Amino acid sequence: MSIVVRDVREHELDSVLALNNAAGPAILPLDAATLRSSFDSAEYFRVAERDGTIAGFLVGFGSDSGHVGDNFAWFRARTPAFFYIDRIVVASRRRGGGVGRALYADVQSYAELRHPHLCCEVLLEPGTDHALLFHGSFGFREVGQNVMHNGHRAAMLMKELCSYAWVRETYGDALPDAPWMPMPRAQSRMLAHRPTGTCA
């Protein structure tokens, strides 16, 4: 069956939370309030669906967001503009089946139109070599390491998004309205709640 990547729906947050907290030691646990905050504020929060069930998800924030976190702050102190992958999780039974690659292809397609760099981290724990190899195969390189407040050490990874400069020079802030190019979630919610008759 094919993999479908789409925006998460509010009623799916409990399933996403369970998926996250069953992912193992390489993924930090979440509580419902933190996940809800991500749903309300993340620029990108999408799930990968396979055989009618959620097989993975990815959450991301632009560098100008109000996101709070050790690793996000590390990148913001060193890089003027970027898109940050806060979390990617793939269900254990779906690992190796292309779900992670589908999510990364989708988030790169989104980010390269809006941000010059794509950033993330991998916890340097026993058994995470596969995650470093996965990211290396996508063109990420380590730009430093960060010791988080909880004592975990993370490899800080970055990838230059080569299309960004051309998109910026060609379109500026006025990207065309195309069905394959989703609007940032925060902007979508703002438009959805704008009173009728209000000027843009």
TrEMBL record:
Residues 3-163 form the N-acetyltransferase domain. It holds the Pfam family Acetyltransf_10. Keywords: Transferase. SUPFAM superfamilies: Acyl-CoA N-acyltransferases (Nat). The keyword Ribonucleoprotein does not apply. The keyword Transferase applies. Coiled coil: none annotated. InterPro entries: Acyl_CoA_acyltransferase, GNAT_dom, UCP028520. One of its GO terms (molecular function) is acyltransferase activity, transferring groups other than amino-acyl groups. This is Acetyltransferase.
